[in-house]
Amino acid sequence: MQVNTIQTHSIETNTTFETKTITAETPRHRAPFANFVDESPGANEFRRLYSKLKNLYGAADMKNFLVTSSMMSEGKSTASALLACTIARYRNTKTILVDCDLRRPRVHQLFGIPKEEGVADVLTGTRKLDTCFKRTSIENLRLLTAGSIVDNPTELFNSPRLRDLFSEIKFYFDTVIVDSPPVIPVTDTLILSPEMDGALMVVKAGETHKEVVKRAVDMMRNAGFNILGVIINNQKAVLPYYYDQSYYGYKYYVRDEKKKKQ
C-alpha cells in the first residue's frame, strides 16, 4: 500500500479538542474554531501540510479535497476544519467547508453555528444552496453544514441532485473541502468520488489497525478516488518526545512574541 504519509502534529491533543464535548447548544465562544488562532500548533502543522500538497500535486489542479478516515473518532472533522481555515487564510481564496457526514455531523459544533439549513436540505429540495452558506471569523471561509436530519443519507447522495449541488458549490468557491463519513462503516463517502480532485485519509496513530487502513484505502481506490496522502493524527501519544513542538520551544516563542507586542 503506497500512499504519501503527511504527518501532522497531534491535532486533537494539543489544540484541546479531544476532551471537550461540544453540543449544538455550545456557546460560540467555546467552539474550537469560532476564532481561528493563526499561531496554534495545529495551524502551523496544516500550513506545512498544504505546502506539501502544493509541492506534490500543484495547487492549480487541486481545488476539491475530501477528508475522511477508516473508522469513527480519528479526527477527520478537526483535520477538515484546520485545512479549510489554512487555505482560506493563507491562499486568500474563496473557500468552503462542506459537512457531508449527514449521520454524525460535527462541523457545526466545531464552529459554534446551527446545523440546520445545509446539505440535506438542498438535496431534498427544501432550501436553495445560496441561502445556506454560513459565515465564519475568517473572511474567505464559508460553511455548508449537514442540515436537517434525514433517514436515508446514502439515497440522497445517489440522487442526481448531488452533482448539481457540487457544480453550484464550485461555481461560487475556488476551493472546496468536504468532511465525509468514515469509509468502512457506510458507503456515503465512496459515492462522492466523481466530485473530488483528491482525498486525504486521517489515521489515529496507536489506535487504528494497519489492516483496517489498508482496507479503507483499497475501497477508496476501487471507487476511483485519487488518494493524496495519509494524515497521521495523535502522534504525541505514540511517537518520541522530539516530535512534539513544545520540545523545540514553540510555546515559549509565541508567548515571548506576545509580550513584545504589548
Structure description:
The chain is an alpha/beta fold. It has a single domain (5-261), classed as P-loop containing nucleotide triphosphate hydrolases (Rossmann fold, 3-Layer(aba) Sandwich), CATH 3.40.50. It has ten helices and eight strands. An eight-stranded mixed sheet has the order 1-8-7-2-6-3-5-4, sandwiched between helices. Helix 1 packs across helix 2 (76-90). The longest helix has 17 residues, at 41-57. Mean pLDDT is 80; it is low at 7-29, 237-243 and 245-261.
Which architecture would the CATH scheme give at its second level? 3-Layer(aba) Sandwich
How many domains, in number, for the residues? Answer: 1
The Cα radius of gyration reads 18 Å
Structural class: alpha/beta
Name of the CATH homologous superfamily: P-loop containing nucleotide triphosphate hydrolases
CATH secondary-structure class: Alpha Beta
The N- and C-terminal alpha carbons lie at a distance of: 51 Å
Mean pLDDT: 80
Strand tally is 8
**Strand-residue fraction?**
5-15%
Lateral strand order in the biggest sheet: 1-8-7-2-6-3-5-4
Shape: globular
